[in-house]
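This protein record is not my work; I was only asked to verify it. Take the sequence as given and treat only the tokens as open to question. I have pasted the whole thing underneath without changing anything:
***
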Amino acid sequence: LDCNEMRTSCPKAFGFLVDQLKNEANAHLSNENVVNEYCDCLEECVNYMTVYRQAGTSLEATNCYAKSSAAGIPSQASQGKVDNLDSESLPTLGSDRCITCAEASAGQAHLYTGLAVLSSVCGVALLVTAGCEQMEINMHCTCFSLGVLVADAVCGALLLMAMILSISGAIAAAAACDPEVMEHVLEKAGHDSTNGSASQAAVYANFLLLLLEPMASGVCAELHAFSVYALASSLGSTCAFWSFLATCCLCCGCTDDGEDDHPHDLKALELHALMNRS
């Protein structure tokens, strides 16, 4: 969501909306300050239509229903006349608190940063433990062996966390890709923001859709990336936990090493002896 673009285009779009609903050319020019107040309010609470749906009479500065009413568009929400109080939310925004445009814009970037950090930490840790295994450093003392074991477990947990985050991102992106979800919420917002006229509600809903559609499109575009990342992190987490469990079984002597003349039996027996000495 480009906040600068939204704030720049809002006064003109909302002014045109006021003219349409009042059926009077340039009617908004007499209330330019109020129009700008509405756009400032929308920037501070882009999901106001769901946050204040059941509290349209609120005097809080982020209640944009009151701002639109002040601009000459009488709304049912600001009069407390909303008939259907079912709570719904816009994709990725929620309805429990106001989300600023800056927060909505930065939320996706923060998620990407978190996933990148988790992946980088796990990649470095697994590279180090693989090197320890290859050079048999983990056979030098118990501390090294336990360090490799703990690293596998931690990486598995971090990758599991990354998988959960990416799945939540994919779910949000899938919701943003469904036009019916957003249109349904905005249709209700249009109805609540006007006097109940179906035509006026449709015009208002279209205004909101034009402003917020770029946000939904941007989130939807990341569905494939989140899905691929979820699959990759789930495979990585499974491998890390499998390595952890296999090493635990080996250390505890739960295998039949030394009984079947396997080429790697010697290393397994050395690890048994190392753990027994500890």
The chain has ten helices and no strands. Residues 142-177 form the longest helix (36 residues).
